[in-house]
Amino acid sequence: MTPKTISTIATPSGHDALEGAISCAGRWSAHLDVMCVAERRLDVSALSGSAMAIGGPILVDVPIDDLEGLEARVRSRLGAQSFPWSIDIPNSAVDISRLFASDARFADLVVLPQAASAEIDIDGLIETVLHIARVPILTVPEGIDPGFERIMLAWDGSEVALAAIRAALPILGDAKEVQIVCVDPAADSAGRGVAVMLDRHGVAASVVALPRANRRIADVLCAYGRENGMDLCVMGAFGHRGLREMLLGGVTRAMLEQTGLTLLLAR
């Protein structure tokens, strides 16, 4: 079943993923929830259930004109759409990141921008959503209309990689091509179990093994995705366990910084 509820944010500068979220909602006839936020209201100070601080104090002094203008622009943009939608403008005195993540628990997909801006601490927001909502996140590069025809699945045998693939199942069925991509696999059989699982869901997937050749794993995946015209890369959101499990792994963070590909992240 494709996503039925999609959540995203909108900002006055437009450095958000609103257009990507609109594209997805139209594709799947999903309800789109949009939270309007203004400058730096998405800074993260702490994660729920953790004493570890992620960033500085939350700034909540937001000009009301910015939010009113933003709401009017979003309403105008959504007014002609055929899918249902709603807009939320939260109280400036609350922790916006945690509120957004809490609301996103009831969504099937969160759509966020891939690049940071003055208004969004994107790493912190992704971490908060994954930690609190545990909902798949689609990160969209600026100016890119997300596509779902050619999809690569980053596979390293980990629990988070498998969780991401399971989260992607609702959209894999309509893809024209699905590839399970392994970087320096430990065995020739790497990825075959995933291919069998997908086949039983009606998804035909090939397995591709790539040499690392002294490169970063993120560089290998990015280069392969660009050179082969992939629309989407599905990957687990965390690279390790332990005290810093709630933080983005190194491969995930590097992909967000440089990929140029739409990413589907899950844990």
UniProtKB/TrEMBL annotation:
* Occurrences of domain UspA (ranges): 148-260
Pfam families for the chain: Usp
* Domain of life, source organism: Bacteria
InterPro entries reported in the protein's UniProt record: Universal_stress_UspA, UspA
The family assignment reads: Belongs to the universal stress protein A family.
| Name this polypeptide is given | UspA domain-containing protein
The taxonomic lineage of its organism, from the top, reads: Bacteria, Pseudomonadati, Pseudomonadota, Alphaproteobacteria, Rhodobacterales
